[in-house]
Structure formats: structure tokens, C-alpha cells
Amino acid sequence: MTNVLLGKTLSELQEVALSVGLQKFAGKQLAEWLYVRRVTSFDDMTNISLKGREALKARYTIGRHVPVREAVSVDGTRKYLFAITNDQSPTTNYIESVYIPEEDRATLCVSTQMGCKMGCRFCMTGTLGFHGHLSPAEILNQIFEIDQIAISNDQSPLSNLVYMGEGEPMDNLDNVLRSLEIMTAPYGCAWSPKRITVSTVGIPAMKRFLDESEAHMAISMHNPFPAERSLIMPAEKLMSVTEVVALLKQYDWSHQRRVSFEYICWHGQNDTIRHAKEITRLLKGLNCRVNLIRFHEGVDRDFPASDEKQMEWFRDYLTQNGITTTIRRSRGEDILAACGMLVNALTANH
Question: In the chain, what are the domains?
Fold first, then answer.
């Protein structure tokens, strides 16, 4: 991936410019073509000399590639399949990204790894195994390609990003942080980091993310009791949910940056008064939100979904006890695009 321009920072693009005989300032021109104008061909870089463009072509590729398949849900959600071929694996792998349109926004759920190694029992993505990290270029390509597709189809351009697709972002932190820099830097896409949320099950690398990024954070909690959580989420052994919350309490969440907790509800397993009381105790003093998520029972028969009435009770209990809580609307279930359902199913027809 070293010869791919997409995903390089301004200083690296300046080095690229010098390496092909261009002036250093051409690095900023390259950044504008890649990240602002988002061109897919060196021929479009019209303020770079023809000789310079030919030299770039000889040594580099831009790194953009279109999705190989698309599925559209009855609710307007769109899922895209990307083929990934890189030096980590001799075979082609696939990842999925999900475009979620709403009245006032359009959100893209981005993947950061090929598969996932966290092994959460309730998550279909974990059944894929782990096949490698996505490069900054492969992360950014999802964003740029799907944004362009939306605009071409007269749909809403992307307004928000959630790094909640395949993989554990904190397990690929260098590349995730690089993609975030390019999305938010003045030389890049100049997005506010407040338009981006990065998810994690909670592993030690999250401290570095908290220190080096201003993006929002979402924690996959699913059970407030460490012993119970460890039975469904092996990562609990790497960093306990109590340690995760203790770390978060060291940071200031009283301004624009937000932290939320994702909580899939299972009947009788984590939706009881005992669990609600423990969440209230655990999160006391932390300015946060809890998002309750309906479980898709086709994922695993060992996890029966909570019914609507119980979820509403759970939400109301937490809210009345000082924890802002919402029930998150499920999107794209019919095309396996909802939470925990990304298994590259589109490859079945590829």
C-alpha cells in the first residue's frame, strides 16, 4: 500500500511531490485533488505539469476503487460491498459499508478491519474471523465512493460518520487515526470531529484515541457486570467495563464531545431491574447517553430479544435515574445491514 496516495498526510504528499521532481508546494495541490476535489485520475490534476503527472503515474496509484455490489433496504438504507486486495492477504477479501439516510442527515457506517478478532458471541461479523487491517486508503475509499454515489443519485451527501462497521477500530488505531486526521484537517476534508463517532468494545488502546482525537466515542457495553459480560464479550478480559468507565471519567464530556454506550437488549439476560440499577451505579457522574438496541433474533438463538414493552421500561428507568437513554431505531435489517449483521453476505451473488 506504500504506493497509494490516498491516505497520505500533507507532509507525506510533500515528500511524494519532491520524489517525482515537483516542488514541495505541489504536495498541497495533491491534497486538494485527493481530499477536496476527490479525483480518481491523475489526468484530472490540471494544475500539476504533464511531466509531473506522468511521473506520479509511473510510481503511484490514487487508491480509489468502486464497490462491487449494492443492496437496498425497504427503509432506504444501502449496503455496499468492497473487494480488498492488499499485501496482508494473498486472496481477495470483502468488507461492507452502510449508508443510512434520514430526514436531516446521512450517516455512513464504516468498516476498519476485514472481519474482527474480538469474538463477541452475539455478533455475526465475528464469525468471519480476522483477515487483516484496513489501510487509511481503504477506510477513506468507503467514505469517498459512497458519498459520490449518493450525490450522483440525488441522495443526501454524507453528514456523519460512524466507525461501527466490521472490525474493532481501536485494534487498528494507527490507520483509524490517520483517516480521522485526513477527514478533519484543513488540508483534507475539514470536517468537524463532532460529526464522527468511533466505536469500541473497550480495549487499552482507547486511551490513546481519547488523547489524540476529538471525535465522539461509543462503547459497546451490553452488560454492566464484568463476570456476565466476559461470557459474551471476550474483550472484557483485556479491559473490564469498570475500567473502561473509570478511564472515561478522567475526561471532560461536558462540552461538545460526547460518549455513548451501546446496549443490545436480551430478554431476561441483561434487561432486568438488577442490570438497570448497576448501569445507573456504574455511570453515575459520567455525562453520557445509553442507546438501547433491538436484537435481531436471526443472529443467534441463544440470545432472545427483549420485547418493546420491556425496552421502554428499561429506558424509562435509566432516564428517571439520571442516565439519558434512547431506543435506537433499527435500519437495514432486511439486507443484513443492521448492528452486528455485517457478514459480507453480498459475496454470495458475486
Answer: 10-59 (1.10.150), 69-349 (3.20.20.70)
